[in-house]
Design a protein that fits this description.
- The protein contains ten helices and eleven strands.
- The protein is an alpha/beta fold and about 300 residues long.
- The strands form three sheets. The protein has a six-stranded parallel sheet with strand order 1-11-8-7-5-6, sandwiched between helices. The protein has a three-stranded parallel sheet with strand order 3-2-4, with helices on both faces.
- Strand 2, helix 2 and strand 3 form a beta-alpha-beta unit.
- It binds NADP nicotinamide-adenine-dinucleotide phosphate.
Length: about 300
């Protein structure tokens, strides 16, 4: 393998150490303790494990932290009222509703009910708009994690050709918005390809990329001969492609054909262990930012 592995778990651990120190400082100098509530509706095993991991990390970092589990039949009105209660709680700076919510609840209504200054997932339209304007406090966690990995492993993407495969609201679109910012860690020339891009054109664009970020949800889609020699490849995809007979655990594959692409790239994220570990860490970073915003230590 020619490419260097970008180990998300190691970068995430490094950022958590930085955050831990910042939390200690905020306590000591400003008597400020970042507060996070995670709201879980129902008992979907995947969602339970996500909120458990978020709670564990927030405790490790010294946050004030609440896990609020609600039954699957909670009404939409009751959930909105609960969010409003947390909007009004000055000890809580971040509110996260674990998605998906049950079908009888409108997930957009839920996300839009969160005070934008406590919206640590950065899904509220006000925060989406703030990002487009370039005056924001939070970035959505997964693309923000990709940006950190690129900056810390590959270097400043300023002036580089970045190609993003996929345009979802949670990964592809915000990834584009992040990489075009006139700031350190961004300032790149960005192209986004998707199912509207003819395949031959898409391959052409991928071949030009100094940095290729893939969030298509198609296992092993990107092939080695679609990648420029020396490119930095960030594989966001997490696809279950089978079950291990030995352990019974899901076998995961990214959106990139790791075997062939790792022969061409200079840096590549593995799946699992690349982008995944960064997502929760960026949520913690956003919560610290939300606390500083509430305390007037940073201004928009
Ligand atoms: P999504 O909502 O399904 O969006 C996929 C995007 O890729 C869409 O914009 C789609 O285009 C585009 N696309 C699909 N097939 C394509 C193809 N053959 N060629 C070009 N573009 C194609 O998925 P998502 O939520 O963005 O997630 C993408 C992947 O990342 C999934 O595997 C997901 O599990 C993973 N993920 C990982 C993390 C993490 O923390 N590691 C977080 C979030 C997501 P259209 O818009 O035209 O349909």
């Amino acid at each position: 393998m020619a490419a260097k592995l970008i180990k998300g778990a190691e970068v995430a651990a490094q950022i958590r150490e930085e955050l831990k120190k910042e939390v200690e400082d905020l306590k000591a100098k400003h008597n400020l303790i970042p507060g996070l509530v995670t709201i879980l509706v129902g008992e979907d095993p995947g969602s339970v494990s996500y909120v458990t991991a978020k709670q564990k990390t927030s405790h490790e970092l010294g946050f004030y932290s609440i896990q609020d589990s609600q039954p699957p039949d909670i009404t939409e009105a009751a959930l909105l009222a609960l969010i409003e209660k947390y909007n009004q709680d000055p000890k809580l700076h971040g509110i996260l509703v674990q998605l998906p919510v049950p079908k009888h609840i409108d997930s957009n209504k839920v996300l839009y009910a969160i005070d934008p200054n406590k919206d640590v997932d950065a899904f509220h339209p006000v925060n989406v708009g703030r990002i487009l304007i370039g005056n924001y406090a939070f970035l959505p966690c997964t693309p923000a994690g990709c940006q950190e990995l690129i900056y810390r492993a590959y270097g400043d993407p300023k002036g580089k050709e970045v190609v993003v495969v996929g345009r979802s609201n949670i990964v592809g679109k915000p990834m584009v918005a992040i990489m075009i910012q006139k700031r350190a860690g961004a300032n790149a020339t960005v192209t986004c390809v998707h199912t509207g891009t003819p395949k031959d054109k898409m391959i052409e664009h991928c071949r030009r990329a100094d940095i290729l970020i893939v969030a298509a949800g198609v296992p092993k889609y990107i092939q080695g001969d679609w990648v420029k020699e020396g490119a930095c490849v960030i594989d966001v995809g997490v696809n279950r492609i089978g079950k291990s007979e030995k352990t019974g655990k899901a076998i995961l594959a990214g959106d990139v054909d790791f075997e062939s692409v790792s022969q061409k790239a200079s840096f590549i994220t593995p799946v699992p262990g690349g982008v995944g570990p960064m997502t929760i860490t960026m949520l913690m970073k956003n919560t610290v930012m939300a606390a500083k915003l509430a305390a007037g230590l940073v201004k928009l």
